[in-house]
Amino acid sequence: MIGLITRRFFQLILLLFGISFLVFMSMHMAPGDPATIIGGPNATSSDLEAIREEMGLNRPVLVQYFDYLGNILQGDFGYSYQTNQAVTEAIITRFPTTVKLAAASMIVAVIIGVVAGIISARKQNSWIDVTSTTFALVGVSIPNFWLGAMLILIFAVNLQVLPVGGLSSPVYTIEGMKELILPAITLGTASAALIARMTRSSMLEVIRSDYIRTARAKGVRKRPLIWVHALKNALIPVVTIIGINFGTLLGGTIITEQVFAINGIGRLMIDAIAARDFPIVQGTVLLVAAIFVVVNLVVDIIYALIDPRISYD
To answer: Can you list the GO cellular component terms from the UniProt entry (predicted)?
Structure first.
Protein backbone atom coordinates (compact mmCIF):
# COMPACT_ATOMS: atom_id res chain seq x y z
CA MET A 1 0.00 0.00 0.00
CA ILE A 2 2.88 2.37 0.81
CA GLY A 3 4.39 1.60 -2.59
CA LEU A 4 1.06 2.39 -4.27
CA ILE A 5 0.79 5.74 -2.48
CA THR A 6 4.39 6.61 -3.38
CA ARG A 7 3.86 5.76 -7.06
CA ARG A 8 0.64 7.75 -7.20
CA PHE A 9 2.34 10.72 -5.57
CA PHE A 10 4.98 10.87 -8.30
CA GLN A 11 2.27 10.35 -10.93
CA LEU A 12 0.39 13.29 -9.43
CA ILE A 13 3.46 15.51 -9.72
CA LEU A 14 4.05 14.55 -13.37
CA LEU A 15 0.35 14.92 -14.20
CA LEU A 16 0.19 18.40 -12.69
CA PHE A 17 3.28 19.47 -14.64
CA GLY A 18 1.69 18.26 -17.88
CA ILE A 19 -1.67 19.86 -17.16
CA SER A 20 -0.06 23.14 -16.10
CA PHE A 21 1.76 23.25 -19.45
CA LEU A 22 -1.36 22.49 -21.51
CA VAL A 23 -3.55 24.97 -19.64
CA PHE A 24 -0.89 27.70 -19.74
CA MET A 25 -0.38 27.31 -23.48
CA SER A 26 -4.12 27.06 -24.19
CA MET A 27 -4.89 30.26 -22.29
CA HIS A 28 -2.11 32.19 -24.03
CA MET A 29 -3.22 30.95 -27.46
CA ALA A 30 -6.86 31.93 -26.83
CA PRO A 31 -8.14 35.28 -28.15
CA GLY A 32 -7.99 38.21 -25.75
CA ASP A 33 -5.33 40.26 -24.02
CA PRO A 34 -4.93 40.27 -20.23
CA ALA A 35 -3.40 43.75 -20.43
CA THR A 36 -6.74 45.20 -21.56
CA ILE A 37 -8.40 43.62 -18.49
CA ILE A 38 -5.84 45.06 -16.12
CA GLY A 39 -5.73 48.48 -17.83
CA GLY A 40 -9.47 48.86 -18.22
CA PRO A 41 -11.45 50.34 -21.11
CA ASN A 42 -9.76 53.74 -20.91
CA ALA A 43 -6.17 52.49 -21.17
CA THR A 44 -4.12 53.84 -24.06
CA SER A 45 -1.81 51.77 -26.21
CA SER A 46 1.20 53.05 -24.27
CA ASP A 47 -0.52 52.08 -21.01
CA LEU A 48 -1.17 48.58 -22.32
CA GLU A 49 2.44 48.22 -23.45
CA ALA A 50 3.65 49.30 -20.01
CA ILE A 51 1.39 46.72 -18.36
CA ARG A 52 2.70 43.98 -20.64
CA GLU A 53 6.25 45.00 -19.81
CA GLU A 54 5.56 45.03 -16.07
CA MET A 55 3.71 41.69 -16.08
CA GLY A 56 6.16 40.02 -18.46
CA LEU A 57 3.41 39.38 -20.99
CA ASN A 58 5.57 40.54 -23.90
CA ARG A 59 8.18 37.84 -23.31
CA PRO A 60 8.20 34.48 -25.15
CA VAL A 61 5.47 32.15 -23.93
CA LEU A 62 7.88 29.40 -22.89
CA VAL A 63 9.85 31.86 -20.77
CA GLN A 64 6.60 32.96 -19.11
CA TYR A 65 5.68 29.32 -18.46
CA PHE A 66 8.97 28.45 -16.78
CA ASP A 67 8.69 31.58 -14.64
CA TYR A 68 5.18 30.49 -13.68
CA LEU A 69 6.43 26.97 -12.93
CA GLY A 70 9.20 28.32 -10.73
CA ASN A 71 6.70 30.39 -8.78
CA ILE A 72 4.41 27.35 -8.30
CA LEU A 73 7.29 25.34 -6.82
CA GLN A 74 7.61 28.13 -4.26
CA GLY A 75 3.91 28.02 -3.49
CA ASP A 76 3.10 31.20 -5.43
CA PHE A 77 0.23 30.69 -7.90
CA GLY A 78 0.11 34.35 -8.86
CA TYR A 79 -2.52 37.07 -8.48
CA SER A 80 -5.84 37.61 -10.20
CA TYR A 81 -5.73 40.10 -13.07
CA GLN A 82 -9.19 41.37 -12.12
CA THR A 83 -9.09 41.70 -8.34
CA ASN A 84 -5.33 41.48 -7.61
CA GLN A 85 -6.26 38.81 -5.04
CA ALA A 86 -3.84 35.92 -4.54
CA VAL A 87 -4.99 32.82 -6.45
CA THR A 88 -4.46 30.65 -3.37
CA GLU A 89 -6.62 32.96 -1.28
CA ALA A 90 -9.39 33.02 -3.91
CA ILE A 91 -9.42 29.21 -4.11
CA ILE A 92 -9.37 28.73 -0.33
CA THR A 93 -12.29 31.14 -0.02
CA ARG A 94 -14.45 29.39 -2.64
CA PHE A 95 -13.40 25.74 -2.29
CA PRO A 96 -15.33 24.90 0.93
CA THR A 97 -18.59 25.90 -0.78
CA THR A 98 -17.90 23.56 -3.69
CA VAL A 99 -16.94 20.71 -1.32
CA LYS A 100 -20.16 21.26 0.62
CA LEU A 101 -22.24 21.12 -2.57
CA ALA A 102 -20.39 18.09 -3.98
CA ALA A 103 -20.61 16.17 -0.69
CA ALA A 104 -24.35 16.83 -0.36
CA SER A 105 -24.88 15.79 -3.99
CA MET A 106 -22.86 12.62 -3.47
CA ILE A 107 -24.89 11.70 -0.38
CA VAL A 108 -28.09 12.13 -2.38
CA ALA A 109 -26.67 10.09 -5.26
CA VAL A 110 -25.38 7.23 -3.10
CA ILE A 111 -28.54 6.87 -1.01
CA ILE A 112 -30.87 6.94 -4.00
CA GLY A 113 -28.60 4.98 -6.34
CA VAL A 114 -27.60 2.14 -4.04
CA VAL A 115 -31.08 1.60 -2.59
CA ALA A 116 -32.74 1.77 -6.02
CA GLY A 117 -30.14 -0.60 -7.51
CA ILE A 118 -30.55 -3.20 -4.75
CA ILE A 119 -34.35 -3.11 -4.92
CA SER A 120 -34.25 -3.41 -8.73
CA ALA A 121 -31.93 -6.42 -8.48
CA ARG A 122 -34.16 -8.12 -5.89
CA LYS A 123 -37.30 -7.43 -7.96
CA GLN A 124 -35.78 -8.15 -11.37
CA ASN A 125 -38.16 -7.71 -14.32
CA SER A 126 -40.95 -6.48 -12.03
CA TRP A 127 -42.70 -3.13 -12.41
CA ILE A 128 -40.41 -1.75 -9.70
CA ASP A 129 -37.35 -2.77 -11.73
CA VAL A 130 -38.77 -1.28 -14.93
CA THR A 131 -39.70 1.97 -13.16
CA SER A 132 -36.27 2.26 -11.52
CA THR A 133 -34.46 1.57 -14.80
CA THR A 134 -36.61 4.14 -16.61
CA PHE A 135 -35.93 6.81 -13.99
CA ALA A 136 -32.21 5.99 -14.18
CA LEU A 137 -32.26 6.52 -17.94
CA VAL A 138 -34.16 9.79 -17.54
CA GLY A 139 -31.78 10.94 -14.80
CA VAL A 140 -28.74 10.43 -17.02
CA SER A 141 -30.42 12.20 -19.94
CA ILE A 142 -31.72 15.35 -18.21
CA PRO A 143 -29.35 18.34 -18.49
CA ASN A 144 -28.37 19.93 -15.17
CA PHE A 145 -29.32 23.45 -16.21
CA TRP A 146 -32.86 22.38 -17.21
CA LEU A 147 -33.43 20.30 -14.08
CA GLY A 148 -32.13 23.10 -11.86
CA ALA A 149 -34.38 25.66 -13.54
CA MET A 150 -37.43 23.38 -13.18
CA LEU A 151 -36.73 22.73 -9.50
CA ILE A 152 -36.38 26.47 -8.86
CA LEU A 153 -39.63 27.15 -10.73
CA ILE A 154 -41.59 24.49 -8.82
CA PHE A 155 -40.21 24.62 -5.28
CA ALA A 156 -38.83 28.17 -4.99
CA VAL A 157 -41.16 30.23 -7.21
CA ASN A 158 -44.51 28.42 -7.24
CA LEU A 159 -44.57 26.53 -3.93
CA GLN A 160 -42.10 28.84 -2.15
CA VAL A 161 -41.01 26.07 0.22
CA LEU A 162 -37.27 26.15 -0.57
CA PRO A 163 -34.80 28.99 -1.24
CA VAL A 164 -33.35 29.52 -4.70
CA GLY A 165 -29.79 28.85 -3.56
CA GLY A 166 -26.68 30.80 -2.73
CA LEU A 167 -25.43 28.59 0.14
CA SER A 168 -24.84 31.63 2.34
CA SER A 169 -26.02 30.01 5.59
CA PRO A 170 -23.99 27.48 7.65
CA VAL A 171 -24.76 23.90 6.60
CA TYR A 172 -25.59 22.83 10.18
CA THR A 173 -28.53 25.24 10.33
CA ILE A 174 -32.02 24.49 9.01
CA GLU A 175 -31.75 27.34 6.51
CA GLY A 176 -28.38 26.05 5.30
CA MET A 177 -29.79 22.55 4.79
CA LYS A 178 -32.76 23.95 2.88
CA GLU A 179 -30.41 25.92 0.61
CA LEU A 180 -28.55 22.70 -0.22
CA ILE A 181 -31.56 20.61 -1.22
CA LEU A 182 -32.23 21.89 -4.73
CA PRO A 183 -28.57 22.21 -5.86
CA ALA A 184 -27.74 18.79 -4.39
CA ILE A 185 -30.63 17.11 -6.21
CA THR A 186 -29.74 18.89 -9.45
CA LEU A 187 -26.09 17.89 -9.30
CA GLY A 188 -26.62 14.41 -7.85
CA THR A 189 -29.37 13.14 -10.15
CA ALA A 190 -27.12 11.96 -12.97
CA SER A 191 -24.71 10.31 -10.51
CA ALA A 192 -27.61 8.59 -8.74
CA ALA A 193 -28.77 7.15 -12.04
CA LEU A 194 -25.29 5.78 -12.87
CA ILE A 195 -24.86 4.33 -9.37
CA ALA A 196 -28.31 2.69 -9.53
CA ARG A 197 -27.55 1.00 -12.85
CA MET A 198 -24.12 -0.19 -11.71
CA THR A 199 -25.48 -1.43 -8.35
CA ARG A 200 -28.27 -3.34 -10.07
CA SER A 201 -25.99 -5.16 -12.54
CA SER A 202 -23.37 -5.89 -9.87
CA MET A 203 -25.96 -7.20 -7.41
CA LEU A 204 -27.52 -9.46 -10.06
CA GLU A 205 -24.10 -10.94 -10.78
CA VAL A 206 -23.33 -11.53 -7.09
CA ILE A 207 -26.80 -12.91 -6.25
CA ARG A 208 -26.35 -15.60 -8.90
CA SER A 209 -22.94 -16.68 -7.59
CA ASP A 210 -22.34 -20.06 -5.95
CA TYR A 211 -21.59 -18.83 -2.44
CA ILE A 212 -24.91 -16.93 -2.28
CA ARG A 213 -26.80 -20.05 -3.36
CA THR A 214 -24.91 -22.04 -0.72
CA ALA A 215 -25.70 -19.50 1.99
CA ARG A 216 -29.36 -19.53 0.96
CA ALA A 217 -29.40 -23.34 1.09
CA LYS A 218 -27.94 -23.23 4.62
CA GLY A 219 -30.88 -21.12 5.74
CA VAL A 220 -29.33 -17.64 5.91
CA ARG A 221 -32.17 -15.15 6.07
CA LYS A 222 -32.87 -13.09 2.96
CA ARG A 223 -32.29 -9.64 4.45
CA PRO A 224 -28.74 -10.24 5.84
CA LEU A 225 -27.95 -12.31 2.76
CA ILE A 226 -28.66 -9.33 0.49
CA TRP A 227 -27.60 -6.36 2.65
CA VAL A 228 -24.50 -7.92 4.22
CA HIS A 229 -23.04 -10.79 2.21
CA ALA A 230 -24.06 -9.86 -1.34
CA LEU A 231 -23.82 -6.07 -1.01
CA LYS A 232 -20.22 -6.09 0.27
CA ASN A 233 -18.96 -7.93 -2.81
CA ALA A 234 -21.22 -6.01 -5.17
CA LEU A 235 -19.85 -2.69 -3.90
CA ILE A 236 -16.42 -3.03 -5.56
CA PRO A 237 -17.46 -1.73 -9.03
CA VAL A 238 -19.91 0.66 -7.36
CA VAL A 239 -17.08 2.23 -5.35
CA THR A 240 -15.35 2.99 -8.66
CA ILE A 241 -18.40 4.86 -9.92
CA ILE A 242 -18.82 6.71 -6.61
CA GLY A 243 -15.16 7.74 -6.50
CA ILE A 244 -15.01 8.91 -10.09
CA ASN A 245 -18.31 10.75 -9.76
CA PHE A 246 -17.21 12.50 -6.57
CA GLY A 247 -14.14 13.80 -8.36
CA THR A 248 -16.38 14.82 -11.27
CA LEU A 249 -18.78 16.61 -8.93
CA LEU A 250 -15.96 18.60 -7.32
CA GLY A 251 -14.68 19.70 -10.70
CA GLY A 252 -17.97 19.84 -12.57
CA THR A 253 -20.15 22.11 -10.47
CA ILE A 254 -19.89 24.97 -12.97
CA ILE A 255 -23.42 24.77 -14.39
CA THR A 256 -25.12 24.11 -11.05
CA GLU A 257 -23.25 26.96 -9.37
CA GLN A 258 -24.27 29.30 -12.19
CA VAL A 259 -27.93 28.27 -12.02
CA PHE A 260 -28.17 28.63 -8.23
CA ALA A 261 -25.81 31.64 -7.91
CA ILE A 262 -23.35 29.72 -5.73
CA ASN A 263 -19.92 31.27 -5.27
CA GLY A 264 -17.82 28.13 -5.58
CA ILE A 265 -14.82 26.98 -7.60
CA GLY A 266 -16.91 26.29 -10.69
CA ARG A 267 -18.29 29.82 -10.84
CA LEU A 268 -14.85 31.24 -10.10
CA MET A 269 -13.42 29.26 -13.02
CA ILE A 270 -16.08 30.25 -15.55
CA ASP A 271 -15.83 33.94 -14.60
CA ALA A 272 -12.04 33.77 -14.92
CA ILE A 273 -12.25 32.12 -18.35
CA ALA A 274 -14.63 34.81 -19.58
CA ALA A 275 -12.30 37.54 -18.29
CA ARG A 276 -9.07 35.87 -19.52
CA ASP A 277 -7.86 35.82 -15.92
CA PHE A 278 -5.02 33.37 -16.58
CA PRO A 279 -3.73 32.83 -13.01
CA ILE A 280 -7.19 31.98 -11.63
CA VAL A 281 -7.96 29.56 -14.49
CA GLN A 282 -4.60 27.81 -14.14
CA GLY A 283 -4.93 27.51 -10.37
CA THR A 284 -8.46 26.09 -10.43
CA VAL A 285 -7.67 23.57 -13.20
CA LEU A 286 -4.60 22.33 -11.30
CA LEU A 287 -6.77 21.92 -8.20
CA VAL A 288 -9.37 19.87 -10.09
CA ALA A 289 -6.66 17.65 -11.61
CA ALA A 290 -5.10 17.02 -8.21
CA ILE A 291 -8.52 16.12 -6.78
CA PHE A 292 -9.10 13.50 -9.49
CA VAL A 293 -5.78 11.78 -8.79
CA VAL A 294 -6.29 11.84 -5.02
CA VAL A 295 -9.85 10.50 -5.33
CA ASN A 296 -8.64 7.63 -7.53
CA LEU A 297 -5.97 6.80 -4.94
CA VAL A 298 -8.59 6.76 -2.17
CA VAL A 299 -10.77 4.45 -4.31
CA ASP A 300 -7.86 2.01 -4.72
CA ILE A 301 -7.31 1.98 -0.95
CA ILE A 302 -11.02 1.36 -0.31
CA TYR A 303 -10.85 -1.56 -2.77
CA ALA A 304 -8.29 -3.28 -0.56
CA LEU A 305 -10.38 -2.64 2.55
CA ILE A 306 -13.54 -4.05 0.97
CA ASP A 307 -11.90 -7.08 -0.66
CA PRO A 308 -8.75 -8.49 1.00
CA ARG A 309 -8.05 -10.51 -2.16
CA ILE A 310 -6.98 -7.30 -3.93
CA SER A 311 -3.25 -6.68 -3.68
CA TYR A 312 -1.11 -3.86 -5.06
CA ASP A 313 2.26 -5.54 -4.54
So the answer is: plasma membrane
